Structure to design on (416 residues):
């Protein structure tokens, strides 16, 4: 069923025998059926913070219309969404979290076929300012209570979490005073990671828990190694790649993947950006320090962004441990005001959007195929891992998930 596929992507493929039975148990023999892939198993993600005001009916006029148009394009690409849980914004007043608004957005996004991740549960930046009124033992208890509350409240809606963010620099962060840096200094990195991960795992034993960082040096490797040796239940390694100063290139990306592959854990590229305007100067160490009045997209930059993003996605998709790629800003003007979106501010698509669309929906999607079941009601399916539908006479008669285990599956028709 699958077309010829680049050898680099063979690990993204699966085969399965599907046997279709009527309600009485007899095979649907010699029947014409159409098999169609409807969703990828691979998590193609993006931040979707604007889903919260949209889902809660807080937009009107041109803003509402534009946001709806943007999300129409969004859902053509992505099956995975990162939602914000920055403590300073989620709970600006202690005891008054923004749970209901975020839940409403979560339910809407799930209805659109998306899987969700919460970001982040513990981070020194954008943490609750009111933590500064308390001692480290009190801050720790509040942090753990916050994790238990939010992971429990969203269980079944959000079952993937960035548990702790940017912990490599957390205890030495000196831009401004905050409760989480104080706490990390007092406890040490590994103990803090252990505390927050165990709290999250206890609150939702089935959740997928990430450690996430922009720091890709040996320091992050040493931290992960220490955490794993301490028995911390890290499910996934998160790696950020905000390339405002230029595309990493294939060689650097593969070198990073090779280093972090030694842990034999799934890898998620959690925050990816490539700009389509001028590049940030190389001497900038903290990307947040770069402030300009205007950072426009340019035609030349858009062509460059498209080429580099295709290379970046191909490189990551080819690696067997990478399970997810999350682009960070869908529309220009997000973080740092950068022209890093796949869409311009007016909602029109850049070349990068069109090229990523071709990858996800053409090159990496199994083409629809019509075939005839054998005398046992069976068909053999091969293609990219993910969710499929089987149709007969223009009606969906069943669905299945194509996984890499190759196990036969039987589908029973309810009415036949």
């Amino acid at each position: 069923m699958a077309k010829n596929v680049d050898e680099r992507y063979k690990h993204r493929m699966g085969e399965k025998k599907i046997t279709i039975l009527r309600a009485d148990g007899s095979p649907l023999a010699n029947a014409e059926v159409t098999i169609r892939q409807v969703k990828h198993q691979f998590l193609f993600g993006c931040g979707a913070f604007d889903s919260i005001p949209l889902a809660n009916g807080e937009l009107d006029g041109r803003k509402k219309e534009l946001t709806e148009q943007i999300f129409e394009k969004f859902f053509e690409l992505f099956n995975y969404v990162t939602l914000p849980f920055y403590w300073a914004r989620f709970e600006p007043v202690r005891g008054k979290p923004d749970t209901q608004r975020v839940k409403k957005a979560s339910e809407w996004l799930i209805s659109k076929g998306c899987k969700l991740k919460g970001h982040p549960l513990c981070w020194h930046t954008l943490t609750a300012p009111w933590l500064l009124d308390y001692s480290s033992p009190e801050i720790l208890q509040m942090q753990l209570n916050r994790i238990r509350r939010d992971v429990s409240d969203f269980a079944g809606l959000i079952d993937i979490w960035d548990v702790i963010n940017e912990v490599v620099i957390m205890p030495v962060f000196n831009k401004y005073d905050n409760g989480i840096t104080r706490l990390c200094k007092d406890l040490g990195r590994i103990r803090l990671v252990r505390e927050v991960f165990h709290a999250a795992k206890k609150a939702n034993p089935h959740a997928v828990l990430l450690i996430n960082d922009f720091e890709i040096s040996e320091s992050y490797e040493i931290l992960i190694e220490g955490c794993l040796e301490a028995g911390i239940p890290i499910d996934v390694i998160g790696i950020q790649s905000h390339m405002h100063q230029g595309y990493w290139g294939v060689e650097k990306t593969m070198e990073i993947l090779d280093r972090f592959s030694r842990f034999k854990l799934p890898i998620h590229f959690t925050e990816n950006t490539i700009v389509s305007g001028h590049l940030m100067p190389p001497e900038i160490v903290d990307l947040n320090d770069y402030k300009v009045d205007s950072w426009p997209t340019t035609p030349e930059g858009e062509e460059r962004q498209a080429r580099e993003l295709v290379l970046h996605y191909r490189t990551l998709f080819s690696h067997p441990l990478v399970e997810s790629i999350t682009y960070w800003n869908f529309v220009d003007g997000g973080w740092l005001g950068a022209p890093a979106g796949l869409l311009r501010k007016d909602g029109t698509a850049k070349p990068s959007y069109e090229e990523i669309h071709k990858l996800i929906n053409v090159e990496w999607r199994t083409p629809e195929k019509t075939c005839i079941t054998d005398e046992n009601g069976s068909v053999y399916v091969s293609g990219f891992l993910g969710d499929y539908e089987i149709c007969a006479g223009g009606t969906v008669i069943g669905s299945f998930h194509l996984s890499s285990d190759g196990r036969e599956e039987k589908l029973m028709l309810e009415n036949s």
Summary: The mean pLDDT is 96. The radius of gyration is 23 Å. The chain is about 35% helix and 25% strand.
